[in-house]
Structure formats: C-alpha cells, structure tokens
C-alpha cells in the first residue's frame, strides 16, 4: 500500500516534501503559497521532481537528524554508501533577524567506497502549466518558463552540470552538494559554504528543540510534532499554515481536495496555544502581531482565514491540466471558504489572547490593540451568536445552528471577561457576564438532545459530531458531568470505527464522509482520559501513533480500512492534538495511571 511516505523540510518561509527514496516531489518557491517548482505529488508525469538513483543494487533508509528538521536519506549501494542531507537554511544572523532564503540544499555525504548514481532533475515551474526549459550555464543550471507568467529557478552544484542535467553517471569520490535557489546567487556557492549552512541550520534546530520541555512519556513524538508545527509557521508575518500542500484528497478518487497553504484563524490559534504551553512564546507574539495587523478598522469583521501575508481575497481556481494525487481531481489553488461565516473563530482567538496575557503578562506588547480586538469580538458575538453559520467543518450548503459555534461564542465572552479583569477594565464585565449566562443556558436548552442523550451536532439535530467533545476542554462543562460523559459515550457509539473517528456521519455537500479525521480521534482520546477511562485512552492513543508515517508525521485524514494517510500533509491540526494528548499522559506516570484505573494498589 502506498502511503504519504514523505518527510518535510523547511525554514519558515517555504517547505519541501522529500519521498522516502530521496525524491523532491513538492516544493513551492519563494514562499509556501507560491506556484510549485516540483509537483510530482499532484501529477506523477507532469508535475516535476528532483531525484537521484544509485546505479546497481541498493537499499535506502531515511530519518530525521534527531531534534532537527534535517532529513537524512541513506543509500547502501554495492560499491559504497552515501547520505543525502536535505534542509532549507535557517539560523540567527549576527546582525539580527533570521536567515531563511528561498533555497533548498541537498548535501551529499560520502560514507564509504565510490558509489555511483545519476540525477533526475526535472523542474516544472508555475504548477507545470507551461513548458519549462533548462539550460546549463557557466556557474549554474537555470530553468525558465514563459507561459502565463515568467519564472525561473537556479541550481548550483559541485558536480558536473552536464551530467546532472542529462542524467549521466556520477561517481562519488568526496562530499558534494546541490543548492536550489529562487534567486541567482551573488557569490558562487562552494562545498565549504554548503557544509557551513548545514551546520548552522543544525545548531539552530538543536537550540530550538532544547527550548521545548522534556516529558516523561512520548517525548520524541512531542518534539517531532513541535518541529513540524514550527515548519508550518511563516516567519515574515507570524501566520500559521493549516498544511504545506494543496489538493491531497480526503478520500482517493473523490473531490474533497482543498488548498491548505493559508492561515485559518481557528487552526492557527489552536497551534499557537499549544506552542505557548511548550514555552515557544516568540511564535505566539508574532501571531498576535499578525492578527492585530489584520484588523485596521474597529468595525471590520474577521474572516475565518487569510493568506500568509494577510491577503483577504483567496479566490479558488482549478488546475485542470494536473491529474491530481492518485487521479483525485480537481487540483485547487485558493480556497473559497474565505468568504464563509464561522462564528467559532471569535472564541478560539479570544482563548489565545487570554492565554498570552496569563502566560506572558509582563512581556505582552500591544495591550491596547488586544483590548480593542477583545471589545470588537465581544460585540460581534453579541450581534451574531444567535445566527446560523457554516460551522467548524465548513459545510458549503445551508447554514445551521452548530453546537460548536455556539460553544465558542460562549468561550469568546467567557475569555473577554477574564481579559477585562486582567486589564482592569471592569465597566464591561457585568454586561458580559449576563451575555455569557444567556449563551450557556441556550446551549443547554437547545443543543442537548434528550432522545439521543447527548449534545448533538446542531440545535434539534439527532446527529453526533466529534467537535462537541471540546465542550469540556474549553471549560463549558465538567468532565464528570453526566451530560458530558453521556456525550462522550454517544460519540463513541455513533462515530468510532476500529479505534478511529468520523467527524460526523450525516451527509454533507459531497455525500457521506468515508475517512477518519485525525484530530477527532485525538479529541476522543483526551475525552476518555478526562472522564476517567485512562487505560482505554492510552490504548487508542498508542494505536493511533502507529498510523503515522515512518517519520512520525500525520496528514489530515486516515482511511478506516487500510489506515493509509489521506488529506493535506503534514497537517497542523493533527500534530497540535497529538501534543495535547501526549502532554496529558505525561502528567502522570504510566504504570501508576493504569493501576489507578484498574483499581490496583501499588506494591
């Protein structure tokens, strides 16, 4: 079974996906949301790739250099051994700021012997919409396209450029390198320079990982997920991407294919909350600056999502010339969901603002702007909480009164009250407390389905929805409250399938869902943990970890039958939820926890 067997490398400006055999199959330059340079991921024939293949028999293995975003592919050949170290340069500059050029370096390290290999260099610029032509020049290889728009990419290398371009045999007698760059270099890169960039980037990631706390359990998984979330953050503005790809399908052959290279307020805010809990406060500060920059006018309403540079128009288009991942059309760029109304974003963002004030009160900047945003969001909630919307799952059909949206309206006002207390703004509190109580009562009255014995997907609905599991984590209801316990049991009864969860099972705009939404299973694990079923929660969690790819990375979805990864990759949602679960389990010793749950005493 083929899977999303890729590693991600990046530098908080862009990212690339490298296959388990060392082929560069997805990369957009100069930024995350730029047109692709390599897109074999979306069309094996037309998309373009950058691979290398040893001559003769060989075996290949791949791993990350521990606690870094440097991906090492090792080739064991009949005539020698070599490694491919893939990375995008990132490190702190002596004059301040971060060095993160639109470059990818492939450092070839000779381990033993004289291995032979050939290069398959086939860039296809601008989503492969037109003809890309490649030319060998004195100092570099340049690839150009002049279709709808002009674009170019440069390749510098220590190897014979003609042999590289034509796929001729290369004998590796010493270390070498490839430097792929969007801009022509001012100074000619050397092997020593490439090695220095590798070492500087290695030190950056080791230092960054050192600031992530160590945990008793699942420490490696937490660290890898934290690095992955960091790779999905955009250093220039502070935006956080939902994923690094576009149009990887939720189900093979179907049309649920979306562009996730944008910043959803919901996804990003959840990521920032987790990263803050891990102590990475600079990521949080940059994100808050990004949010402040999006709202120049006090009366302007938040969109649910923005471009990574703050773009508000994300017009959706299809690339009909591409076959799609495993033939799953259409391939989309842009995302029409930017026009949707989703009332949950206010609560999620307010939750992050409160957290930042609580964690970093002495260091917080822009307090006046944050107070303006708080008042603005409370005003929006007051005006809109009784309205229907598209909900967390972005139904493209008619609006509904989704329980999750109502819950997060309650969260928005609850957090606004706490922010007001921190900032000493008592004049708003009494009115907001009254509003919070009205929303709380409304949810209990209309979201609870007596027949189902659970809080359901929307007011008056008999359908279950995994998002209602978040009622406890957001503080709306106690974990041991009979209504919450009953809701968890109803979700398990209706949505669980072989240890994985549907988001929901009722028909949506595209028919019946047929894959598991990864974050929902993590939510379910946390819910079981909270209601006291810790041994079962641990069992499902460890089973779920086994469904990651060979590098510990998760996509958006998992196929119920085959357990293959589906959807955009790697998915921020999935990794933030993994960290939340792992941190919960790490708060208690595993054996002690299981003994308690089984009613056993320690010896």
Taking pLDDT < 50 over at least 5 consecutive residues as the criterion, the unreliable ranges are 589-603
The rounded distance between the terminal residues' Cα atoms is 46 Å
Strand content: 15-25%
Output the CATH topology of the largest domain: Glycosyltransferase
Which CATH C-level class of the largest domain is it? Mainly Alpha
Radius of gyration: 25 Å
Described by strand count, sense and barrel closure, the largest sheet is:
8 strands, antiparallel
Count of separate DSSP helical elements: 15
What structural category characterises the helix and strand content?
alpha+beta
Overall geometry comes to: globular
Mean of pLDDT: 92
Number of domains: 2
* Subunit organisation of the chains: single chain
Strand neighbour order, sheet with most strands = 6-7-8-11-17-15-14-13
Q: What is the annotated CATH architecture of the largest domain?
A: Alpha/alpha barrel
Domain GH15-like: 223-582
Keywords: Hydrolase
InterPro entries: 6-hairpin_glycosidase_sf, 6hp_glycosidase-like_sf, GH15-like, Trehalase-like_N
GO molecular function: hydrolase activity, hydrolyzing O-glycosyl compounds
């Amino acid at each position: 079974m083929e899977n999303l067997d890729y590693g991600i490398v990046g530098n908080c400006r862009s990212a690339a996906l490298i296959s388990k055999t060392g082929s560069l199959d997805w990369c957009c330059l100069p930024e995350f949301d730029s047109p692709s340079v390599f897109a074999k991921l979306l069309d094996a024939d037309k998309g373009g790739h950058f691979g290398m293949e040893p001559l003769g028999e060989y075996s290949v293995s791949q791993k990350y250099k521990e606690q870094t975003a440097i991906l090492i592919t090792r080739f064991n050949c009949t005539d020698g051994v070599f490694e491919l170290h893939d990375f995008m340069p990132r490190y702190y500059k002596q004059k301040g700021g971060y060095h993160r050029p639109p470059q990818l370096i492939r450092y070839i390290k000779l381990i033993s012997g004289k291995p032979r290999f050939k290069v398959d260099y086939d860039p296809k610029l601008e989503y492969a919409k037109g003809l890309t032509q490649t030319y060998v020049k004195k100092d570099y290889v340049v690839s150009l396209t002049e279709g709808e728009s002009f674009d170019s990419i440069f390749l510098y290398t220590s190897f014979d450029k003609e042999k590289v371009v034509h796929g001729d045999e290369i004998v590796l007698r010493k270390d070498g390198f490839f430097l792929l760059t969007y801009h022509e270099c001012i100074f000619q890169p050397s092997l020593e320079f490439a090695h220095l960039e590798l070492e500087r980037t290695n030190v950056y990631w080791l230092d960054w990982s050192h600031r992530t706390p160590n945990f008793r359990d699942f420490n490696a998984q937490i660290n890898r997920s934290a690095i992955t979330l960091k790779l999905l953050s955009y250093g220039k503005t502070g935006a956080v991407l939902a994923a690094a790809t576009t149009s990887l399908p939720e189900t093979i052959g179907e049309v649920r294919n979306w562009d996730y290279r944008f910043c959803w307020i919901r996804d990003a805010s959840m990521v920032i909350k987790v990263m803050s809990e891990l102590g990475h406060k600079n990521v949080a500060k940059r994100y808050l600056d990004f949010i402040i920059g999006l709202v120049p006018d006090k009366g302007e309403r938040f969109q649910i999502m923005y471009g990574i540079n703050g773009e508000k128009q994300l017009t959706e288009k299809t690339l009909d010339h591409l076959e799609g991942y495993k033939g799953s059309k259409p391939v989309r760029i842009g995302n029409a969901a930017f026009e949707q109304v989703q009332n949950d974003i206010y609560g999620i963002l307010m939750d992050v603002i409160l957290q930042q004030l609580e964690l970093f009160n002495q260091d917080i900047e822009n307090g006046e702007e944050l107070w303006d945003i708080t008042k603005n969001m409370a005003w929006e909630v007051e005006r809109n909480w009784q309205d229907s919307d598209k909900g967390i799952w972005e139904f493209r059909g008619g609006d509904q009164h989704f329980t999750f949206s109502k819950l997060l309206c309650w969260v928005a006002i609850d957090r606004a009250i706490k922010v007001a207390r921190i900032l000493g703004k008592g004049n708003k509190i009494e009115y907001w407390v009254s509003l919070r109580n009205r929303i709380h009562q409304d949810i209990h009255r209309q979201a609870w389905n007596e027949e189902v014995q659970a809080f359901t997907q929307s007011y008056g609905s008999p359908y279950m929805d995994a998002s209602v599991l978040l009622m406890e984590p957001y503080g709306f209801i106690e974990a041991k409250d009979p209504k919450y316990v009953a809701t968890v049991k109803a979700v398990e009864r209706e949505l669980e399938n072989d240890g994985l969860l549907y988001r929901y099972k009722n028909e949506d705009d595209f028919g019946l869902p047929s894959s598991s939404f990864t974050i929902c299973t993590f939510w379910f694990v946390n819910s079981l943990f909270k209601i006291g079923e810790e041994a079962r929660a641990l069992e499902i969690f460890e089973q779920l970890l086994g469904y990651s790819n060979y590098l510990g990375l998760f996509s958006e979805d998992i196929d119920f039958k085959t357990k293959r990864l589906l959807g955009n990759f790697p998915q921020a949602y999935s990794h933030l939820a993994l960290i939340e679960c792992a941190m919960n389990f790490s708060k208690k010793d595993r054996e002690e926890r299981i003994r308690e749950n089984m009613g056993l005493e320690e010896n």
